[in-house]
Amino acid sequence: MSIDASPAPPVQLLLTPPEAARALSISPRKLWSLTKAGAIRAVRIDRSVRYSVVDLAAFVESRRSAP
After folding, report:
1. Helix, coil or strand: residue 55
2. Contacts of 46 (CB under 8 A, 6+ apart)
3. Residues 6+ apart with CB under 8 A from 48
């Protein structure tokens, strides 16, 4: 019996705006609107804007309706 010792693929922590919009199934314009309103936090690295997967998941959870 052989055990595959290959490392797990790296986890992507930050998404570009188009990737984040696609992950949320919204338009990039709506994502920017939510970011400007403070509903979704953005990470700025120099002049780049990225979105944390954790923050996106928290946004979705905060919008979940009660049963």
Report:
1. helix
2. none
3. none
